[in-house]
Input
Amino acid sequence: MQLNRQQEGALRGEEGEARQLAMEILAKVGDAMEADSLVPISSAHVLAHYSSLHEAGIEMLEKFRDGGGRFAVKTSVDPASIDPQNWKSFGVPEEFAGKQFRLFRAYEALGGTGCWTCVQYQTCNIPNGGEILAWAESNAVVYANSLLGCRTNKITSGLDLACALTGLTPRYGMLLDENRVARVAFRLSVRDPSDLDYRSAGFYIGRHCGSRVPVLSDLPKSSTFDSLKHLGSAAATGGPVNMIHFVGFTPGCDSVAKATGGEKVEVIEIGRKEMEEVEGELNQTDEKADLVALGVPQLSLDELKVLAGALAGRKLRRGSSMYVYTSKQAYDEATGSGIRSAIEASGARLTHSTDGEISPLKEMGFRTVMTNSAKLAETIMSEGEIRMRYAPLKDMIAEATS
Amino acid sequence: MTESYSVRVMTGRKARGLALVSKKAFTFAHGVDPRNGNVTDLHSDLLGKNVKGSVLVYPYGKGSTTASAWFLETVRLGNAPAAVVTSSVDPAAVIGSVVAKVLYGVEIPVMLWSDAPSRMRSGDAVEVDAGTGTIRLR
Output
């Protein structure tokens, strides 16, 4: 990869220790990925939850901070492993919370926006079409490439900071036209898909696309951006998906042929049988759930409104908990508009700036968790300690309230 | 008999160890326990094996973009592989190795060799030299 004079200077340490390490990461990854150059980005999104970063991740971040690092572009941060406001009342161990607070402080020192969310594209970091981004967080990468007309690779931890601190990213992968052409087509043949069907369809695509970019046709015209958010998140959980061409929704994509560049590709149907295959993989048990968890990725205000309606007049049964993960923005808006109190009147609890798959659910005492999130189900299941149930919203509410 | 192969260097210096070869996609994120180096990923063909000090070989990475941080934590606790050889680039290993050098002074070679999973077998004695871009099998 070619570096210009200024970038070479940074690599030699002329712009301080933080930028030197950042530039070394950019140069090594750029060479590895056979990028030709570094290109400017308009925003970054970085990872910051203690449960995955561990002590070493904190030390990495503090190294950048102590080396004089400052984010060079707008930088949003992924959810934390705790709700910074309400963590005590959720039973998070003090020591665990202390680690996350070290990460909060380091990000603040680097100039983070103070926005801890995996749906930055709905809240605090909304790019314009055509922009080049360096975003970590797979659901947001799929959303930006598929629905916003932006270009971003799925940026690995460490590289995310290097991009944020320099405002640059290596030019490879999803930044290049030839890697964005659809090579396999999926066709949704389920009419009137449920909330769970959108997620299962995504997961199925992830499991069956291999390294090919997929196109998905025959989505109902009434599909919401929230539904596609969850579909994309599930796809990125099931396989190495960075983008889905949604016919009728992806900017400029009005047909399968448009996505494939006119090439003939394999067509795979997603019907009831395929949905059931996913449900079979993500459903481990039919035991009573001690936690019903909603929102991985975090729910939007619109989704909170729907939930408030579905919970109206219902109460959680004894021994059951329902946690609803959302962004700080949606939490504040829901608090102001009475939606939060409507949800919490049932006994369910809203929690912000965190998300289920990265919070210490085992330490909080849960053994069986029910969700309609394929990402939560797959992530927690692979750790092998909590048993997962995967079901639609209406079944989750029935489970928690009866 | 020693066989020597020229391969692409991603980063690092020299190492030697016994090969530990996976034929499947591999991840450190929720896949290796940093506290002991044990492979915990239920989908891995190395489930129950230990990566510490090995020359870890796999075709490509998968899963969470936090894999580099899991790799780094494994280095911090002294349970990392001695070297990593993949057949497609795994940015998590490259980044983990670059940052480990700065934080912990450990230079783990990361090499790219498309034939690695077919040419190497678990238990092979392997020397990896990122300086010359060679892998020697004995």
User: Anything to note?
Assistant: DSSP finds 15 helices and 14 strands in chain A.
